[in-house]
Specification:
The structure holds 4 protein chains of 4 kinds.
Chain B: H1 7-27, H2 31-54, E1 59-69, E2 72-80, H3 82-105, H4 112-131, H5 135-153, H6 160-191, H7 196-207, E3 211-214, E4 217-220, H8 221-236, H9 245-248, H10 254-263, H11 268-275, H12 277-280, H13 284-307, H14 311-331, H15 335-362, H16 380-394, H17 400-415, H18 418-445, H19 453-458, H20 464-479, H21 487-493, H22 498-507, H23 516-542, H24 546-553, H25 555-562, H26 567-614, H27 622-642
Antiparallel strand pairs in B: 1-2, 3-4
Helix pairs in contact in B: 1-2, 1-4, 2-3, 2-4, 3-4, 3-10, 3-15, 3-20, 4-5, 5-6, 5-10, 6-8, 8-11, 8-13, 10-15, 11-15, 13-14, 13-18, 14-15, 14-17, 14-18, 15-16, 15-17, 15-20, 15-22, 16-18, 16-20, 17-18, 17-23, 18-23
Chain C: H1 3-22, H2 26-46, H3 50-75, H4 90-108, H5 121-127, H6 129-139, H7 142-163
Helix pairs in contact in C: 1-2, 2-3
Chain D: H1 3-8, H2 19-62, H3 78-88, H4 99-117, H5 134-155, H6 159-190, H7 195-201, H8 215-228, H9 240-243, H10 253-278, H11 294-313, H12 319-349
The chains are: A mainly alpha, B mainly alpha, C mainly alpha, D mainly alpha.
Chain lengths: 100, 649, 168, 350
């Protein structure tokens, strides 16, 4: 049997891949993809802990996270579409309006 | 039906909410169709409740815990006993009639809906005041009626004098309320609760012999609390020396004067003193202060009323004077008599004001009695009802005012001691009252019209919506007193003093016995009243020049009275001017200009300069923010790891 | 789960996601992530969460990533044309991610499982995962469930408002 | 000892299955599954092959012409001739194509549609995988089939293909929702997601089918199934008159054949799902000896005939009409069906 630590390590590693992608990619769509990867890493941890604790709370969390992820993707991509329409750029470092 | 009394305050509140939210856009000039049913149903519920109370059902319960803070706990609750029942009759009846009257009086005003919303709010607040079962709720109602009074005095806020009068009323009341607030604090400190029940029950035991050190002097606690509470009553009921706001409050619409500044709000002080009678009764000194203040005010205001020409101001000073009577009664321990006078006064004084409003309505807003005259033939209903009110206030036997005033004077006389002095002052005031009331009456309704032809052309009787309340109140002014017949008449007829008996559970059983002296006292006061009327008739009907002649004979007295004893000027000199001087020279320049503005401007300036440096960090790049966030998480976890041991993990 | 299976899945997941986040072509990246999600779904099945596995495929692969592809198509982002695919400060991002990973791995040694719940694999298997999830979701978690429905509604309205054109 | 459990190690009995007996058991189970897969794929492929012939003949006769007549009697061997032609045709790949995606797209397409068939119970006790979430699995696989279309459209780097891919993705996402919701009524009535359970649950109802109490759901499902499989009247992604065959314009030879086969497998798969969920699966009014899946076949042929019939008679939708139909009519209708089913179920229980 696989100990719980292995899942934790896998989840952490996957999460950091997501963090890395989010921090370094210039394309907004790739940043969104990185967020999805991070969410999946978290989901994996939830499911793993739920399994090892004989508890369903982790599964509940995963369902809600997937719901929120769907909502987030819809909203984020809608924002992206309107940003690209207005700025003609899908690169995050060319959008600098967010400052005082 | 058990909780029907909840509707009494709830309906006016509902009316207020509907009118204030929907009034501007939706209801507009239909506001009375919301307000009047609300008050009418409230009145009906009140009548039902009063009948219940008469049947012996006293309501006393908490509904909702309002504030809990440590040992301090205040609940919202209702106490409906006999005293409250009397007030319920007065407040809801007068309020209902004034509402109806206002539909005619305020028709066409652009603030129509606002007016009715405020009237409803006032009714709600007044009902909360009289129905409360603890001091804090009383205080809430107390301040809320003050607020409504402010709104309504300044109702025509475009007029500077109206706005100023509103402010004056508000500020003068603050002086009294300051004392009242302190009194409530003292009660909480002493008793640990603000509920009427426990406070009044334990008052004799707790307060007996207790003193506090105040400015190096030992003052009985009961006296201190009583006087502090009385401060509030002085402000709210416009007694000396805080009476100055009430005459100015006449800037408000006349129905407001009738409702708030004659029948209900200003009597809140009397109600409060009567309500707190278990505390007041413990302090002879406080009682003496109450009685003397009342008597002096009664005489003082009556003298001013002798010479004024503004119809509403005359009635306003008469109100102050009559309120003085009520305090006089409380001062000699005759709370029942005071409340009785409050009750009859509500009818005839509201009637006087509404009648004055009717006259003004006809006179195109003219207030000067010297420009009126001979209105009898133009406005018969107003004339007859006004006559009834004047007879009532003068104390002519058979009219409401007679019974209550007579009872007060007899109680004062029979109390002995300082009571005799109070009786003398009261009787003098009664003479003046009869005189100025009929001076006003004769000047306005008899003789020739002095306002010019064009104005005469416009004279007309008021519409039904205004005369109907006048008629009802007129009947009240005649008949309302018969519920409290004095013993010597009552015994002859075989009925006892119903009113006194009704209130007996609240004020303790005061034995009523017919005394031979009472007939004498009654005779004196009736004679005095008739004398006053005769003098007025002589000076203003039979020999119209007599008044002017008297004025020229005593110019100094007239000048002092005409200027209301220079009280306003005195206050202006003592309080207002120094306050302005301090504000201009000290506060504006030094404390506000340097200290406060320095801090107020310095803080943003510091933040601004800091922000200027910090905003370099804000690049507008999403990933930079994310990186900083991630780095901080990294730092936090690292710190947690390093200090793991020290944190005891 | 069989360690060999776990090893394969873990390696595939990590490799695919690394390839995805470093890929130059967004379409390829999305396709790699889809494959990664399939492996994740298998992982869920191995952990006894068959319903979640199905949801993972239906929602993530079937809806969210189709949405991604759709947006890529609409915006016609063939390849990252504007020069570099990584931002200029990528070493910083990389070092933060690596540092965080190191810390997290150190911390993960301190993971201790808490109290055990009542839902053993046998209980779940006897009543099927879907049924038991449904019961818990519609009783204990009804409020979060309603809230999440609201979130979805807001997302629908928001997405239409944001992306909808002015002219209509 | 289930093979899958053993492989995943989810079962507690892993230590129990030891030694040679365990290994032999595993080998046996593996062999059985492979045989099952082979049988079903074989039968499926035969059906697909002659379904094309069947379609051409049906439409031909409906349009008062003969259809293929040359190869074999009544052109019966035409599919084989087609197959040989496609197999030996030159495989053209556009120069600017995104090659890996271009290669993998038809494979995904055929793989996703074929996988869905794995959980369909052919007759009592015969199916490749009897899993608890059968219905969800089918939904998952059918949503994946969109990827084949989208990727093909993208990878070809041609504007017609691209538009076809774009349309397809929008269409599939929209109708996926309606289809999923239409099946919820079935799930509620059966109380299970397992397809065998669903078939068994239908026995209590009139004619042994759900199609009568779930008539709304059945209607929504059938319309969505037409859209999911890109069949007329919803064949916009491949509309030959406007998009020149849409997403597989650039495909030729064997890869084209894969798409073609995938479409027919999808059609058969959807028909099988409809039969399993709404029409009583392998059961029928009376027992037919020797051919355990006779009823299933009869129903399948009828369903396929329905597909052809619709294709021969109904004109194609416009794109915005298609979207409107999906979002403004089918989805509300399916939601209403769910509410109705729930209400009736509660009432009956009470």
């Amino acid at each position: 049997m696989v100990p719980v630590q292995w899942y934790v390590w896998l989840g952490l590693a996957l999460f950091m891949v997501g963090v890395f992608g989010f921090l370094t990619r210039r394309s907004i769509i790739m940043m969104f993809l990185s967020i999805e990867i991070m969410l999946n890493a978290v989901n994996l941890l939830f499911v793993a802990f739920a399994h090892f604790l004989n508890d369903l709370r982790g599964h509940m969390m995963v369902i809600f996270i997937i719901t929120v992820a769907a909502a987030e993707a819809a909203m984020g991509l809608a924002i992206l579409v309107s940003v690209v329409r207005n700025r003609l750029s899908a690169h995050v470092d060319e959008i600098k309006q967010m400052k005082g | 039906m058990d909780h029907l009394y909840l509707l009494i305050p709830a309906l006016p509140l509902l009316g207020f909410i509907i009118n204030i939210t929907l009034g501007r856009g939706l209801i507009k000039d239909k506001a009375h169709l919301v307000a009047i049913p609300a008050v009418f149903l409230s009145w009906a519920a009140a009548m039902y409740t009063v009948a219940q109370v008469a049947g012996g059902t006293i309501v006393s319960r908490d509904f909702y815990t309002w504030i809990v803070s440590g040992g301090f706990s205040v609940s919202a609750g209702f106490l409906i006993d006999q005293l409250t029942a009397v007030m319920l009759v007065v407040v809801t009846t007068v309020s209902l009639l004034v509402h109806i009257y206002s539909t005619g009086y305020m028709r066409g005003d652009k603030g129509f809906y606002r007016f009715f919303a405020y009237l409803n709010l006032f009714t709600f607040s007044m009902l909360m005041l009289i129905m409360s079962n603890n001091f804090l709720q009383l205080y809430f109602g107390w301040e809320a009626v003050g607020l409504c009074s402010y709104f309504l005095i300044g109702f025509w806020y475009e007029k500077k004098s109206a706005a100023d009068a509103g402010k004056k009323a508000f500020i003068v009341n603050r002086f009294g309320d300051f004392g009242f607030g302190l009194g409530v604090f003292m009660i909480f400190l002493t008793f640990g609760t603000l509920h009427y029940g426990p406070v009044f029950q334990s008052a004799p035991g707790v307060l007996a012999g207790k003193t506090v050190m105040l400015f190096g002097q030992s003052v009985p606690l009961a006296t201190l609390i009583s006087l502090l509470l009385f401060c509030g009553a002085v402000g709210k009921s416009a007694q000396l020396p805080l009476h100055v706001w009430l005459p100015d409050a006449m800037e408000g619409p006349t129905p407001v004067s009738a409702l708030i500044h004659a029948a209900t709000m200003v009597t809140a002080g009397v109600f409060m003193v009567a309500r707190c009678n278990p505390i007041f009764s413990l302090s002879p000194l406080a009682m003496a202060v109450v009685g003397l203040t009342g008597a002096v005010t009664a005489l003082f205001a009556a003298t001013i009323a002798l010479v004024q020409n503004d119809i509403k101001r005359i009635i306003a000073y008469s109100t102050i004077s009559q309120l003085g009577y009520m305090f006089l009664a409380c001062g000699v321990g005759a709370y029942g008599a005071g409340i009785f006078h409050l009750y009859t006064h509500a009818f005839f004084k509201a009637l006087l004001f509404l009648g004055a409003g009717s006259v003004m309505h006809s006179m195109q807003g003219e207030l000067d009695v010297q420009k009126m005259g001979g209105l009898k033939k133009y406005m018969p209903v107003t004339y007859w009802t006004f006559l009834a009110a004047s007879l009532s206030i003068s104390g002519i036997p058979g009219f409401a005012g007679f019974f209550s005033k007579d009872e007060i004077l007899w109680k004062a006389y029979s109390a002995g001691g300082i009571g005799t002095l109070l009786w003398v002052l009261g009787t003098l005031a009664a003479l003046l009252t009869a005189f100025y009331s009929f001076r006003l009456f004769f000047l306005a309704f008899h003789g020739k019209f002095r306002g010019g032809h064009e104005l005469e052309h416009h004279l007309h009787e008021s519409p039904k919506s205004m005369t109907m309340p006048l008629t009802i109140l007129g009947m009240g002014a005649v008949a309302a007193g018969w519920v409290g017949l004095p013993p010597f008449i009552g015994n002859a007829l075989g009925v006892s003093n119903t009113f006194g008996a009704f209130l007996a559970p609240v004020f303790g059983n005061i034995t009523e016995s017919a005394a031979s002296g009472e007939i004498m006292i009654t005779g004196i006061s009736v004679a005095v009243a008739l004398l006053g009327i005769l003098i007025a008739a002589y000076m203003y009907v039979w020999k119209p020049g007599a008044a002017t002649a008297l004025k020229e004979k005593l110019p100094a007295v007239h000048k002092v009275l005409w200027n209301k004893y220079y009280v306003d000027e005195l206050y202006n000199f003592i309080i207002v001017k120094p306050a302005f001087w301090t504000a201009r020279n000290f506060i504006a320049g030094t404390s506000d200009g340097k200290v406060i503005e320095g801090v107020v401007n310095g803080v943003p300036r510091a933040i601004d300069s800091f922000g200027r440096k910090l905003r370099k960090l804000q690049t507008g790049m999403l990933q930079d923010y994310a990186a900083i966030m991630a780095f901080c998480i990294f730092a936090f976890i690292a710190a947690a790891l390093v200090f793991w041991k020290t944190m005891g993990g | 789960m069989n360690p060999i299976v776990f090893g394969y899945l873990a390696a595939a997941i990590l490799l695919l996601s690394l390839l995805a986040v470093t890929n130059k072509n967004p379409v390829h990246a999305i396709l790699l992530v889809i494959v990664m999600f399939f492996h994740m779904a298998v992982m869920y099945i191995g952990l006894g969460a068959e319903f979640l596995a199905a949801v993972q495929v239906i929602v993530y692969a079937g809806a969210i990533l189709v949405l991604f592809l759709f947006v890529v198509f609409v915006l016609n982002i063939r390849e990252e044309t504007g020069g570099e695919r990584f931002s200029s400060v990528w070493p910083f991002g990389l070092s933060i991610a690596t540092g965080l990973l190191l810390l997290a791995v150190i911390l993960s040694g301190k993971v201790r499982l808490g109290a055990m719940g009542p839902y053993t694999p046998q209980v779940i298997a006897a009543e099927t995962h879907t049924k038991i999830l449904g019961r818990v979701l519609y009783t204990d978690y009804i409020l979060p469930f309603e809230i999440s429905s609201l979130i979805l509604l807001v997302a629908v309205v928001g997405a239409i408002t944001l992306a909808g054109r002015e002219d209509r | 000892m289930n093979l899958f459990d053993l492989w995943m190690g989810t079962s507690q009995g892993i230590q129990g299955a030891s030694g040679a007996a365990g290994a032999a058991g595993i080998a046996l189970q593996l062999a059985i599954i492979i045989i099952k897969v082979a049988v079903i794929v074989g039968v499926l492929m035969v059906h697909v092959t002659w379904a094309t012939y069947f379609e051409r003949k049906t439409i031909g006769h409906m349009q008062v012409r003969l259809g293929p007549m040359r190869v074999g009697p009544h052109g019966f061997l035409q599919p084989i001739a087609d197959f040989i032609k496609l197999f030996f045709k030159e495989d053209v790949i556009p120069a600017s194509a995104d090659k890996p995606v271009f290669f993998v797209a038809p494979v995904i397409s055929i793989f996703a549609t074929m996988s869905a068939v794995a959980v369909i119970p052919i007759f009592s006790g015969f199916e490749i995988a009897d899993i608890n979430i059968g219905l969800l699995y089918i939904l998952a696989m059918s949503s994946l089939s969109a990827y084949g279309v989208i990727m093909a459209g993208w990878a070809s780097n041609s504007k017609y293909s691209f538009l076809g891919g774009l349309r397809s993705s929008a269409q599939v996402i929209s109708y996926e929702v309606a289809m999923g919701l239409s099946l919820v009524g079935v799930m509620m009535m059966a109380g299970s997601l397992n397809l065998t359970e669903i078939v068994k649950a239908q026995q209590k109802y009139p004619l042994g089918i759900f199609a009568i109490p779930q008539i709304l759901g059945f209607f929504v499902f059938m319309v969505s199934a037409f859209a999911e499989t890109n069949r007329t009247p919803f064949d916009l992604p491949e509309a030959e008159s406007e998009l020149v065959a849409g997403y597989f314009t650039e495909y030729s030879g064997m890869r084209f054949a894969l798409f073609y086969v995938a479409e027919y497998i999808g059609m058969i798969g959807m028909s099988l799902v409809a039969i399993t969920c709404f029409l009583g699966g392998w059961t029928g009014p009376f027992h037919i000896p020797y051919v355990p899946f006779a009823w299933l076949l009869i129903k399948l042929y009828l369903m396929i005939f329905l597909f052809y019939w619709v294709r021969a008679t109904v004109p194609r939708y416009r794109y915005d009409q298609l979207m409107k139909l999906g979002w403004k009519f089918l989805i509300p209708l399916a939601l209403f069906n769910i509410v109705l089913t729930g209400a009736v179920k509660l009432l009956v229980k009470a």
